[in-house]
Amino acid sequence: MTERPIRRIVIVGGGTAGWMTAAALANALQGSCRIDLVESGEIGSIGVGEATIPPIKYFNRTLGIDENAFLAATQGTFKLGIEFVDWSRYGQRYFHPFGQFGTEFDAVPLHHYWLRERERGDDKPLQDYALAWAAARAGKFDLPVADRRQVQSSLDYAYHFDASLYARFLRQYAEQRGVRRTEGKLVDVALRAGDGFIQSVTLDGGTVIEGDLFIDCSGFRGLLIEGALETGYDDWTHWLPCDRAVAVACAHRKEATPYTRSTAHAAGWQWRIPLQHRMGNGHVYCSQFISDDEAAATLLGNLEGEPLGSPRQLRFTTGRRKQSWNRNCVAIGLSAGFMEPLESTSIHLIQTAITRLLALFPDRDFDPFAAREFNRLTQTEYERIRDFVILHYHAVQREEPLWRQTATMAIPDTLQYKIEQFRSGGRLVAESMELFQNSNWLAVLVGQEVWPQRHHPLTDMRSQVDAAGRLRGLRRVIEEAVHHMPTHQQYIDRHCRAA
Ligand code: FAD
Question: What Gene3D superfamilies is this protein classified in (predicted)?
Answer without folding.
Answer: FAD/NAD(P)-binding domain
